[in-house]
What does this fold into?
Amino acid sequence: MEKLISDFSVGLFFWQSLVFVALILLLRKFAWKPILNAVNTREESIENALNSAEDAKKEMANLTVSNERLLNEAREERDALMKEAREMKAEIVAKAKEEAAAEGEKMIASAKSAIEMERKAAIVELKNQVASLSIDIAEKVVKGNLASDDKQKALVNELVEEVNLN
Amino acid sequence: MTKKVFKIFVLIVFSLSSLVSVASAEAHGHSDTTEVKKSIREEIKETIAHHLQDSYIFEITHGVSFPLPVILWDGGLHVFSGAAFHHGDHAVESKGNFYKLYHGKIYKTDSEGHINYDAEHHVQNAKPFDFSITKNVFVIILMSAFLFFLFSRMAKRYANNMNPGGAAKFLEPIIIFIRDDIAIPNIGKKHYKKYMSYLLTIFFFIWFLNLAGMTPLGIGVTNNIAVTFALALITFLITQFTANKNYWGHIFWMPGVPKPMRIILAPIELLGVFIKPFALMIRLYANMTAGHIVIMSLIGLIFIFQNYFATGAFFGLTLFLSILELLVAALQAYIFTMLSALYFGAAVEEHH
It folds into this structure.
């Protein structure tokens, strides 16, 4: 201990303190601060990069999910549309059929009525013709009657035969 | 693979370095005296002591050295070259005063360079205030310049590029370790930032100086008590000056214990305030000194036994201990930083 104290060099202590304090101050300004700042900045940027990568991953996952959802929605919509279209088609066809049937019936009915009318008209004409023919026959019979009986008879027969032919 | 080989090579060189210095001592021993056996032991002891001692000359290897400036305050400033001492043979004249180097210390003497002793063989001569740039101071300045160069360059790199490159690849994990495993757990997220500069500086300073102490240059600085005292003192001062009310409350008026106990606890706690940095100082000093002494002693044993078996065995042991010392170099830096952080944490702990 005595040797330690007697060997203690004040000069060395003085220089060591001076140089070391100067070294601390110099290194603080020119080395430690820039180095620690750079390291901190880098660590932060790495952390940020990792975080943003994580976020991007999450976003990607979200996107996938939403894509899936959109796709499903689209599919559902398509299905709904197709179903609707099919229904509409069926409806239109059914309606068309119905309408066609109705039209057909109507046409048949009008045709029937036209035929009926034609028949009636034909009957009337026939009646008229029969009447005029009867009158003609009667007229000729009357005229022949005026000549002789035989002739009258022959005329009547002839006329009757004419009528039959008609 | 080549890196591994290189590492092993460096280790061997480090352990050999001490070998070389002891070997040179041994050579001296042979040439100087006739009592060979005794002189080897004496020389080894001296070499170890010399290795641990500060010097006014920077000796790169035996015989290759350059002098460092001696700066004395003795009623005026005296500046001269460390080479002027001639290893203590001459008294140096400066502005009318005479100084002599005796057992590694500078004493004021007369023109003849007489050293006066008292009855217990203690030197009576006056000692001037010695602010010389000694070997240790020189190494501290050199290492500080190196650290500044290394880390300011590293910081500049970050300005252009976010990724660590070059030395930063190795140093950045250590910086982050100090932040995340030393500062934040001990001090807390709220206050740790203001201590980071100190913790980082002290860690790298101690670690690099410890490693430098293992080089062939023999420049162990951290095994000097003045250096560890300065470091511990700074930790102590920072702790006291950043401490909050809660910290002082725990020292002088411990909450949660009966009043008479508080009176007893106060002096104990106050003593603890000083013991903590004192332990820091002694721990680092003793660990590094012990490591150097053990390794050098083991190498010294090779020259005492002087046979091939002992040479091989002690060489292996030295190599092993050198590897251990590499670990200790980092460990002591870690412990010093860790405990400093712990004390800072106690100083800024919030009331809870």
